[in-house]
Amino acid sequence: MPALRYLFLDQMSQSISCLKDINKETDTILIAETKEAFTHVKHHKKKIAFWISVMRHFSLELQKQKYKIKYLKIDDPDNENTLENILMKESQKAQAKTIIMTEPSDYAQHQRMIKLKASSAIPIEIREDDRFLSNRMFFAEWAKDKKQLRMEFFYREMRKKYDILMQGKKPEGGKWNYDSDNRKPPTKGLDIPAPYIESIDKVTQEALDVVKKNFNNHFGDLEPFFFAVTRDQALQVLHQFIEERLFNFGTYQDAMIEGEPWMYHSHISFYLNCGLLLPLECIKAAESAYKNKKAPLNAVEGFIRQILGWREFIRGIYQYKMPSYEDENFLDASTSLPEFYWTGKTKMNCLKQCVSETKQNAYAHHIQRLMVLGNFALLSGLNPSDVNEWYHIVYADAYQWVELPNVTGMILFADGGVLGSKPYAASGAYINKMSNYCKNCTYKVNEKTGEGACPFNYLYWDFLNRNHDKLRTNQRLAMIYKVLEKMDPEKKKQIIENSKTFLNRLTKNELI
Ligand code: FAD
Ligand code: SF4
User: Which of 136, 265, 421, 503 is 20 to 30 Å from 153 at the Cα level?
Assistant: First the structure.
């Protein structure tokens, strides 16, 4: 029975469930550059160029393998304005008797497809996305009787389930987690390997031209463009990471150095999230490196935990808690996103560096997202809706399923502790310890109050003070609240005044 098999833009995998039983003679694969996908939020220019180049390369690969492909370019006259219309029209043209798709990763889009299935004259089959290592049922079963959902315990189940870094029933080396050996501050003279840079071929050049023509008013630098855009290239990125960076991944996982956006991270999230790489192959590659004594256990376990633990846990939370998760605002944070998140125009050097790198690369590594950009959003009381939109727009690996729990749960504590046990709030001392940003900053990280003091220092205490009623009962904050309660009243008064002045200037978008 002829089928139309539709691939969403983050499903560029040949092993995806909706292609599993494809008949090359009768079935048509549909890939479409839908305007709504690029403009639903105004994505970073590099991200759109990446998507278009990946989709076009993927379609060419499938054509080479003699699959029947219908590819709709953005300016194709047949490209209808909604996905629903595209699916109806193209299924008729392909004389398909059924439409087969893998469930979209985005909650709202999934709901739309369920609705379409219910009303469509042509049968629609929506299959589970088995590229992930956990699924709704497994997560719900794990979560069902738990008072708190903690990644660490979920991760242990996943290690056992997939038999990764296990010695029988025990974890390799005797411990589940080697973070105590990780997260060292940066040291001088680190020889950080250059990141993977892919040259621009004809297809990518056309993708860049599409973005210049259609999306020039979006955020971010389109060029230089360097992403891998095919599966073979993405595998090279993974290989290069395993050979050159994995060894130091754990040790310098949280380190930040001015002018070094890539550090020892893997830079594979773009490829994992759009389908060019599969999570299990990345995990297995790291595990083999450990077995072959190419990388130490602290690095390998730390890396595997990010994918088998965090990535799957985050998706589990998203599926478990949507749609209400989108509206969470436990701390009633209401300040609008300041202009400098787009321009990088601020005297706070850490923020300036992280925003500029985000603008250039559509990438910032985890600790920049969490402890600089996220920490500032938390301490300043920025509203979850603005912050979520920003993170969704600016990173080439951002899709709502992964961005939303990281923002609402991890950085803003807007879910009241569903994802994390306490807010990731920190003063300037943390940023100073883990980076060299403070050396080139207008503000003094060692000053706690006053005009020249690092704003993170007073905002940190002000945040705790402002949210006293909601956070005081959190056991993990008990010690710090005791310090606040014993604080000299004069000092406390100055902290509150400094914060008020600063936040007032922030809301007026003054240069801070
Ligand atoms: P590495 O540091 O090398 O880690 C390896 C892999 O682990 C990543 O590629 C990623 O797939 C996975 N991973 C690690 N941490 C997380 C996490 N917290 N959640 C999910 N996966 C994780 N990641 C995204 O893929 N898309 C996002 O939109 C996104 N938004 C984020 C927003 C905030 C506020 C924060 C704090 C984190 C966010 N992350 C997001 C997680 C993480 O920062 C990125 O996955 C990582 O920086 C990607 O770079 P990398 O591939 O070099 O990662
Ligand atoms: Fe950031 Fe404060 Fe350091 Fe400046 S002094 S770079 S604002 S942490």
Answer: 265
Mean pLDDT for the chain overall: 97
4 CB near ligand 1 (under 6 Å): no
Q: Which ligand is nearest to the CA of 238?
A: 1
State the pLDDT at residue 148: 87
**Residue 372 Cβ < 6 Å to ligand 2:** no
Query: Which band of pLDDT confidence, cut at 50, 70 and 90, is reported for residue 78?
Result: confident
Atom of ligand 1 nearest to the CA of 253: 2
Give SS3 for 27: coil
In angstroms, rounded to a whole number, what is the distance separating the alpha carbons of residues 380 and 372?
A: 12
CA 168 – CA 163 distance, rounded (Å):
8
> How far away, in angstroms, is 360 Cα from ligand 1 center?
18
81: pLDDT strictly greater than 90 = no
Q: Counting Cβ atoms within 10 Å, is residue 196 exposed (0-12), middle (13-18) or buried (19+)? A: buried
Beta carbon of 267 within 6 Å of any ligand 1 atom: yes
CB 424 within 8 A of CB 378: yes
Residues 6+ apart with CB under 8 A from 380: 335, 338, 459, 503, 506
The confidence band for 147, taking pLDDT boundaries of 50, 70 and 90, is: confident
User: Which ligand approaches the C-alpha of residue 410 most closely?
Assistant: 1
Check pocket membership of 456 for ligand 2, CB cut-off 6 A.
yes
Q: Six-digit token pair at 112?
A: 């739309």
CA 188 to centroid of ligand 1, rounded, Å? 26
- Would the CB of 441 count as within 6 Å of ligand 2? yes
> Per residue in 348-401, pLDDT tens?
999 999 999 999 999 999 999 999 999 999 999 999 999 999 999 999 999 999
Q: Report the nearest-CA residue for atom 34 of ligand 1.
A: 407
Residue 507: count other Cβ atoms within 10 Å of its Cβ. Answer: 12
